[in-house]
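Kindly inspect the following:
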Amino acid sequence: MITFSELLELIQGFLLTLRQTVNIWDLVDILFVAFLIYRVLSFMRKTSSSSVIKGIALILLVAWLSNSLNMSILNYLLRQVLQLGVIVVVVLFQPELRKMFEQMGASRLIFMFRKRGRFEHVEAGINNVVIASEEMSKNETGALIVFERDIGLNDYAVTGTRIDAYMTSELLQNIFFHNSPLHDGAAIVRDGRLLAAACMLPLSNNINLSRDLGMRHRAGVGISERSDAVAVIVSEQSGTISVAIGGMLKRHLTKDTFEILLRNELVLDRRKKKKKKNVRKPGAKKASASKEVLKSDLE
């Protein structure tokens, strides 16, 4: 039986051999590939493609077993199928791949240089949306309001009527009034300002959504799947307020919960990012940036 000292010697020998044969770039390579695999699996798990992935994994397993057991005919057929695997994957996962490339193309690296609005503008926009949503909920007026975050929504804003105005609760209620020409579609908010109204949004293909949800809720979930936007939905049938974030729909929110949720997603999240960014700035820039964040926190 191996002793504890011998086990330590084996571990030390293994680490010494690993240190001599593996450099830092090999570790970076392994971590990067592991991160990519994790992101792909996490992305696929949120979609309806998980069963397709299981089917592909089953085919690979059968192909390996057929090769190990010398089942030549089955192995030949499976190898012919696997040779067309890239084309099959592109066809099967076309919606998911499109969504992934859209999010990559509209990532924070591209929009990090876009000028962002001040926190007080965003907070004022949240207050107006909360007030307007409560009033529309009482009157059972349907509404769909989308807050843009890091991923731009210009492609969807151009499908509606551009407004680019200071947002008030009265303006939102007039837009979603039953006889208003802009009540159909979504209103897009950027940095506390109303960017556009009557915008067309992509519908979610999530089969797990409740059947009693209408087009407005599916559009809200759809835009939250395609981007990092926060969508506010007011039901026209029941007057309930819902929020869609990251493809997840949170329904039947009270006023306090609704307001806290918006502030956590739109204000606190941005402040955390800004603080992390300011910590990396040296010298006077770091001090001035920290004072600016502190001042905004006190306000």
Residues 25-108 form one domain. Residues 108-115, 281-299 have pLDDT under 50 and may be disordered.
